[in-house]
Write a structure and sequence with these properties.
Number of domains of chain A: 1
Number of domains of chain B: 1
Structural class of chain A: alpha/beta
Structural class of chain B: mainly beta
Number of strands of chain A: 6
Oligomer: heterodimer
Shape of chain A: flat
Largest interface: A-B, 45 and 51 residues
CATH architecture of chain A: 3-Layer(aba) Sandwich
Largest sheet of chain A: 6 strands, mixed
Order of helices and strands of chain A: HEEHEEEEH
Strand content of chain B: 35-45%
Helix content of chain A: 25-40%
Number of helices of chain A: 3
CATH topology of chain A: Rossmann fold
Radius of gyration of chain A: 23 Å
CATH class of chain A: Alpha Beta
Largest sheet of chain B: 6 strands, mixed
Chain lengths: 192, 176
C-alpha cells in the first residue's frame, strides 16, 4: 500500500522530467525579421534623410527636436554602413536605385505598470529599404530601443541630461541593429 | 479515524512544488549556441535562468562557426562551407531589473570560439552576454544573428535592443 502511494507521488515528478524539455522546445513567439536573400539586387544605396516628425511623450517636455533626432540617426546609420564589404553607398546628394530610410517614430517614457515609478526611455523606429523606380519596398521592419529603468525623478534632473544620454545611446543601438539586420545577417537558403 | 498521512503528503507536495519551480533545462537558442555557461530555461521555457558560474574570470565558450551537422563531420549549411575569415564578436552587459543595463565589455574580431576575461567581473553579479560570428561569404561581409535564448514567454512583435533574451550568468560571491 505504501509502495503504491509512493508511485502515485512520483509519477507527476517523472512526467515533469519528461515534459519540461519538450515544453522548452515549444515554438517561440519571436517573429522572424523580413528576409533579404538577394542583396546583390540592391545596387547603389542612398541613406535618405527622414522628414517624419516623431511623436514625443509630453512628459519629456520640449527639449527634443524631431528633425535633429532623425539627422542624428542618419549619421549613426552612415557610421555603421561605412566600410561594409560588398555594398555601394551613394555620396550625399547623389541619387541611387535603392533608398534606406531609418526614422524615429516615437519617443516616450514607458512604465511596466501603473504603480511602477521607474520608467524606461523607449525609442520606436522603423527601417525601410525602398526602390522608387519599381514602386516597391524590399524591407520594412519596426525596431525598439528600451533603456534601463530609472526613477522618474532621475529623468528630469540636470535639464533632462539622462534623457539626452539615453537618446544618444538608443540611436546608436537602433542604427547598429538596422544595419546588421539589413546588410550583415546571413539568411540561410530556404529548404528545398 | 485519524489521518496520520497528512503531514507526509504535505511534505511530498512541498518537494513536488519545489521540483516544479526549480528544475531547468537546456534552452533552445537563436544564433551560436553557448557551451559555457549553458543557456537554460525553466517554467516550460518561459523563464531564462542566470546560470551560476564557478569563476569571476570565466572562459565563455560557444559553438564554432560554421555549425557542423549532428555527426560533427560536415558543415550543416553547404553554402557556409565557403565562409572565410571567420571571427567572433562578444558583448557583455550588467543586469538591472532583469534586463541588460550598461554595456560592461565588448570584444570584436576574436579568432577562437571562447574568451576568458582579463580582469575579474563583479562578485555576486548578474550579467547578460551574447556572441555572433562575422565572416566573408562570396566577397560580402556577413554575420550570424546575435545569440539569444528562445523563450516562450511573451510575443515579440518588434525586435528590442538590447535584447532581454540574451544569454546570462551569475558570478560567484566568493573567490576569483
Amino acid at each position: 500500500m505504501e509502495r503504491r502511494r509512493d508511485a502515485l507521488f512520483f509519477w507527476p515528478l517523472a512526467l515533469v522530467t519528461l515534459v519540461t524539455p519538450a515544453l522548452a522546445q515549444a515554438p517561440s513567439t519571436r517573429l522572424p525579421a523580413p528576409s533579404l536573400r538577394d542583396r546583390a539586387e540592391l545596387g547603389s544605396i542612398a541613406v535618405a534623410q527622414s522628414r517624419y516628425l516623431p511623436d514625443t511623450d509630453p512628459s519629456l517636455g520640449n527639449s527634443i527636436s524631431g528633425p535633429l533626432l532623425q539627422e542624428l540617426l542618419r549619421q549613426d546609420i552612415l557610421k555603421q554602413v561605412s566600410g561594409l564589404k560588398g555594398y555601394t553607398f551613394a555620396a550625399a546628394g547623389e541619387t541611387a536605385p535603392t533608398l534606406l530610410e531609418v526614422r524615429v517614430e516615437r519617443v516616450s517614457l514607458a512604465k511596466d505598470s501603473l504603480i511602477d515609478d521607474s520608467p524606461s526611455l523607449v525609442l520606436r523606429a522603423r527601417a525601410r529599404l525602398v526602390q522608387p523606380a519599381y514602386g516597391r519596398s524590399v524591407y520594412d521592419q519596426k525596431l525598439e530601443y528600451r533603456s534601463p529603468k530609472r526613477a522618474s525623478s532621475e529623468w528630469s534632473k540636470n535639464e533632462d541630461a539622462m534623457v539626452h544620454r539615453e537618446i544618444g545611446q538608443g540611436l546608436k543601438e537602433l542604427a547598429q541593429k538596422a544595419a546588421d539586420d539589413i546588410f550583415l545577417v546571413y539568411d540561410a537558403p530556404a529548404a528545398p | 479515524m485519524t489521518r496520520p498521512r497528512r503531514p507526509e503528503h504535505l511534505r511530498r507536495l512541498i518537494i513536488l512544488a519545489w521540483a516544479l519551480s526549480g528544475c531547468s533545462v537546456k534552452a533552445p537558442v537563436y544564433g551560436l549556441r553557448p557551451n559555457y555557461p549553458e543557456a537554460r530555461v525553466r517554467r516550460g521555457g518561459k523563464e531564462a535562468v542566470f546560470t551560476l558560474i564557478d569563476s569571476r574570470q570565466p572562459d565563455l565558450g560557444w559553438e564554432a562557426f560554421p555549425p557542423r551537422d549532428k555527426d560533427a563531420v560536415a558543415v550543416a549549411d553547404a553554402t557556409l562551407a565557403r565562409a572565410k575569415w571567420v571571427v567572433y564578436d562578444l558583448k557583455l552587459w550588467h543586469e538591472e531589473n532583469g534586463a541588460p543595463d550598461a554595456l560592461a565589455e565588448e570584444h570584436s574580431g576574436l579568432a577562437e570560439p571562447h574568451y576568458q576575461f582579463q580582469s575579474p567581473l563583479d562578485a555576486c553579479a548578474k550579467y547578460f552576454w551574447t556572441v555572433r560570428a562575422r565572416f566573408t561569404l562570396d566577397g560580402r561581409e556577413q554575420a550570424t544573428e546575435w545569440g539569444v535564448i528562445q523563450t516562450t514567454d511573451r510575443p515579440r512583435w518588434v525586435p528590442v535592443v538590447p535584447d532581454p533574451d540574451y544569454y546570462r550568468f551569475q558570478t560567484p560571491c566568493t573567490g576569483h
